[in-house]
Amino acid sequence: MIHPSALVEDGVVVGEGTSVWDAAHLRAGARVGRDCIIGEKTYLAPDVVVADRVKVNASVYLCTGVTLADGVMVGAHTVFTNDRFPRATTPDLTALRPSEADEHTLSTYVGEGASIGSASVIGPGIEIGRFAMVGMGSVVTRSVPAFALVYGNPARRAGWVCRCGEPLAEGRCPACDRRYAVSDDGVEELA
Questions:
Q1: Can you tell me the distance from the alpha carbon of 79 to that of 71, in angstroms, rounded to the nearest whole number?
Q2: Does the pLDDT at position 185 exceed 90?
Q3: What angle do CA 71, 75, 78 make, to 5 degrees?
Q4: How confident is the model at residue 99 (pLDDT cuts 50, 70, 90)?
Q5: What's the pTM?
Q6: What are residue 168's phi and psi, to 5 degrees?
Q7: Where are the domains of the chain?
Q8: 19, β-bridge pairs
Q9: Which of 20, 13, 119, 115 has the alpha carbon at shortest distance from 71?
Q10: Helix, strand, coil % (nearest 5) of the chain?
Q11: What is the domain class of 1-83+105-160 according to CATH?
Q12: Are 109 and 89 in contact (CB under 8 A)?
């Protein structure tokens, strides 16, 4: 379902079962998988990749270079960035820099099952690991390990979470009883 007020440019791929809501803008080259939700007033820049079963809530900005893996959730009003040293013009101020991707454009990857809380800002050139959770309003300036819970400005690790989203207690999920090996270096799922 594509809302009549959504702008989906030529060359965009939208998978079966995906909903694109009102006033969303999907630029040429963007690819959205199956069974996704693209919320109202959300912007997908050229060549953004959204895998299957992804929820992108209202008013999210996904810039060129962003890839969201299967099962990712992005909260409303989240902004991704892709240039560490942005400038509007050339150094001599005689011309605007083009908006297209160039040698300054950095990629950001969000791993499967990860969640990003509303109103977060995601810096350029980082990776958010699988099933990680970013708290609302966070400013993410460095990569986030798999299963990490991070929040704040700048975002810092505050613990580890289960696949289901619950904080881990001594390597065990109190909600679903999944077990994990937890160390300072990360989390490993146990069979």
A1: 19
A2: no
A3: 115
A4: confident
A5: 0.95
A6: -80, 145
A7: 1-83+105-160
A8: 37
A9: 115
A10: 0, 35, 65
A11: mainly beta
A12: no
